[in-house]
Amino acid sequence: MRAVLYEAFQQLPEVVTVDDPACPETGVVIEVAATGLCRSDWHGWMGHDPDIRLPHVPGHEFAGVIAEVGSQVQGWHLGDKVTAPFVCACGQCQTCRRGEHQVCDRQFQPGFTHWGSFAELVAIDHAQVNLVRVPDDMALETAASLGCRFATAYRAVVHHGRVQSGDWVVIHGCGGVGLSAVMIAAARGAQVIAVDISATALELARTFGAAVTLDPGHVDIVDAVRDLTGGGAQVSIDALGSVETCRNSIRSLRKRGRHIQVGLMLGADDAPPVPMSTVIAAELEIVGSHGMAAHDYPTMLAEITAGTLSPQRLVQHRIDLSEAPAKLAALDQQPGNGITIISPTPLAP
User: Fold this and answer.
1) CA separation for the pair 275, 186 (Å, rounded)
2) Mean pLDDT of 212-231
3) What phi, psi does 89 have (nearest 5°)?
4) Of 111, 110, 108, 107, which Cα lies nearest the Cα of 41?
5) 244-275: pLDDT as tens digits
6) What is the Cα–Cα distance from 111 to 117, expressed in whole angstroms?
7) Neighbours of 268 (CB within 10 A)
8) Do 83 and 130 meet the contact criterion of CB atoms below 8 Å apart?
9) CA–CA distances in Å: residue 187 to residues 157, 240, 259, 269, 308
10) Residue 164 sits in which domain range?
11) Which pick of 174, 179, 200, 339 has the fewest CB atoms within 10 Å?
């Protein structure tokens, strides 16, 4: 199969031919129709993830059709349209038995612990707990956007943020996960404040339902949020992952507000100082959010099918596999806007 492969961190990947993945007895091999280009892939390529072993194929949010089924798999068949969470679970550990598959004790992550989806094929083990059936009327590129950014944002807003109509919600960083959070919070009737340094990203945030947009290059974010909300937001989400956005998110909250950390804190940002005196005095909640288990997808999919949520609008760019190495390497300096989808097969002109 063709795949994007890197043999050293921070060295430009190449599209090469490698062996097809073996099908696990309890898993499947999926023919990848679409896969998302995500900042987490860039972190992995930079060497920020200790789970990656070289040589490596990145890619962790994808959708496609089942090409091979393991001997112990039931209920899944060749040709089924599927996607999967970026955190795949064993289904057997104590954490999984509590239903918390997204923090499985023996989790595996395509594109990190195992070879990923920047390829024509990807193998997923424990199909019974990790596969998600894609609705017949949903495009596979839309489904590919769900596995990391949209599902992560959904759980952050709905489960952790417990966002209600009328709440003030601040989203720090309007990349793929941040714009997803804007859309999901706005659909619940929240008053959303979107924060980013990109004018284009802020314009997209407005189209997805942000009531207010702020550029930290022009205003003090904490002061502006407190003025707009009359004392702070009920919910604030750091969707980027930096010392500055984490601090601003916490300080943007009103008393008993909720900070959800979604953006990865890696490299130089891996140990941010937290204003713990403020957390204690204001009884703030600080929660990390790490994806969403496959068994929690049906509610989200129902909202998409009903038209309440429209993740397909987040897909702003489409490239083929040959373009992926350069786009991955440039992602920190040229993040683009919305979600970029990679097609493992050449795109039609």
Assistant:
1) 28
2) 97
3) -110, 160
4) 111
5) 999 999 999 999 999 999 998 877 788 888 99
6) 7
7) 10
8) no
9) 11, 21, 20, 31, 7
10) 153-288
11) 200
Segment holding 30, helix H or strand E: strand 28-37
Strand partners, 110: 114
pLDDT tens figures, 305-316: 999 999 999 998
**Exposed / middle / buried, residue 274 (Cβ in 10 Å: 0-12, 13-18, 19+):** middle
Question: pLDDT band at residue 349, thresholds of 50, 70 and 90?
Answer: very low
At 176 the three-state DSSP class reads helix
Angle at 110 between CA 124 and CA 77, to 5 degrees: 20
The tokens for 151 are 């599902």
Q: Tell whether 338 and 219 lie within a shared domain.
A: no
Q: Residue 88's closest CA among 61, 70, 69? A: 61
Specify whether 160 is located in the same domain as 267.
yes
**Residue 324 placed within a domain:** yes
Give the count of domains, the chain.
Answer: 2
> Taking the model in full, what pTM does it have?
0.92
Specify the 3-state DSSP secondary structure of 248. Answer: helix
The overall average pLDDT reported for the chain is 95
Asked whether residue 118 falls in the same domain as residue 168, the answer is: no
Give the bridge partners for 238, in sequence order. 172, 261
% of the chain with per-residue pLDDT over 90: 89
DSSP line for 275-324: -HHHHHHTT-EEEE-----GGGHHHHHHHHHHTS--GGGGEEEEEEGGGH
Residue-wise pLDDT for 178-193, tens only, equals: 999 999 999 999 999 9
CB atoms closer than 10 angstroms to residue 42: 18
Locate 168 and state its tokens. Answer: 């003030």
Q: Supply the DSSP string of 207-219, one letter for each residue.
A: HTT-SEEE-TTTS
Task: Read off the pLDDT band of 348 (50, 70, 90).
Answer: very low
304 occurs within a structural domain? no
Residues in the chain: 349
∠ Cα 291 189 306 (to 5°): 65
> Position 297: which residue type?
Y
The CA-based diameter of the chain, rounded to the nearest angstrom, is 60
